[in-house]
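Methods, example record. To illustrate the input and output format used throughout this study, we show the complete record for Phosphatase PAP2 family protein. The sequence lines were provided to the predictor; the line carrying structure tokens was produced by it.
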Amino acid sequence: MKTPSALLKIHGIDTELLFWLNRHSHIRTIGFISRQISRLGDGPLYAAVGLMVWLWGGAAGAAFFYAGLAAYALELPLYWVLKNSIRRDRPKKGVRDLNALITPSDKFSFPSGHTAAAFVFATLIAAFFPMFAPVAYVLAVFIGLSRIMLGVHYPSDIAAGAALGVLCGETALYVMG
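The corresponding predicted structure is encoded as:
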């Protein structure tokens, strides 16, 4: 089956943005910072913060914790189904001369799970602790950008992960009342 020209055009823009963001990642400091920011999106940070807020945050902390459980219970299976249905190869497989600095944990790139999780967390922080919303969203954006700079995601993977994360966070907030 032939790929529609609109998708080819989007892929071309995606690849140009990928190269633009990735081209300086070989610089030792930039690569190191990108790795550290990416590690923040691995998951343990969200669990640790969630538990601390639950233990010491009173009623709002408990509500935050349970909304987080609901949001991640929604996000993880949706992410898995999308990733394994769409099956988009990682940039290193399809883009020559790309500087990939880490080995990803799985084969496919769309959507970015790190970014989805970061935006779930930021959405919940914004709802329960609005004074920390700017920091949470900036961190989520940096986690997404780090994944591009490390060469494991296209920009559209990041955009889809961000949308998925916000959608799951907002859905959990709505359901939890």
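Annotations derived from this record:
The first helix runs from residue 5 to 22.
DSSP finds eight helices and no strands in the chain.
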